[in-house]
Amino acid sequence: MALRDTRLRRRCAKLLREIDPVDPFDIHELVARVASWQNRPITLIPRTMSAGLPCGLWIAGNSRDFIYHEENTTPLHQEHIIAHELGHIIFGHQEDDPEFDEHVAKLMMPSLPQVVIERALGRTHQHRACENEAETFASITMEWATDHRPSRRPASERLAQRLERISKTLEDDRGKWNE
């Protein structure tokens, strides 16, 4: 791993610690913490994204941020998409790009004002460095999430507990049968 990548991973981990995600991990709580951290509300909008469009999109509105994310994918993938878009918010990736496709914008966000659409689509053509930062933040977040999910007992442990309860019930009932 290049030194540059190591530095970026450390920076992302430091930012994640500053945001202080809840344990056990919950993507909605992380969104709330980022909103609080930046003192600006964030609204999640699940949406079916058309082919050829990104799986997620962050739009900086006048007074709040909007994260559009693919709704027809696994919950884990949705979390990754949202974490990626949070990375763009945290790193402040907002730049003007004169190239944007008005048709795609209107398809995805028909009710948003044109100026907001132009700002948002300027970000979809970001430089590689911005995408790398956002993706690295998402990866660090999902690694943290993996270690901080609610623990699930293995099926064998659950089965053993059920068998123990059945056995105890049968033993208790056996005493009744002898009476």
How are the elements arranged and paired?
Elements: H1 3-19, H2 27-38, E1 42-47, E2 56-60, E3 65-70, H3 75-91, H4 102-108, H5 114-124, H6 128-147, H7 155-177
Parallel strand pairs: 1-3
Antiparallel strand pairs: 2-3
Helix pairs in contact: 1-6, 2-3, 3-6
What do these coordinates show?
This protein has 179 residues and is mainly alpha-helical. The chain has one domain: Arc Repressor Mutant, subunit A (Orthogonal Bundle). Helices cover 60% and strands 9% of the residues. It has seven helices and three strands, in the order ααβββααααα. It has a three-stranded mixed beta sheet with strand order 1-3-2. A hairpin with a 4-residue loop joins strand 2 (56-60) and strand 3 (65-70). Helix 1 crosses helix 6. The longest helix has 23 residues, at 155-177. The relative contact order is 0.14.
Q: Which structural category do the helix and sheet elements fall into?
A: mainly alpha
Shape verdict = elongated
- Encode the helix/strand succession as letters: HHEEEHHHHH
Stretches where pLDDT is under 50 for at least 5 consecutive residues are 96-104
| Number of alpha- plus pi-helical segments | 7
Q: Can you give the helix content as a percent range? A: 55-70%
CATH T-level fold name: Arc Repressor Mutant, subunit A
Going by CATH, the architecture would be Orthogonal Bundle
What's the rounded overall pLDDT mean?
A: 79
Q: Between the first and last Cα atoms, what is the distance in angstroms?
A: 73 Å
Identify the strand order in the major beta sheet.
1-3-2
Biggest sheet descriptor: 3 strands, mixed
Total domains, how many? 1
Radius of gyration: 23 Å
Strand content: 5-15%
- Strand tally is 3
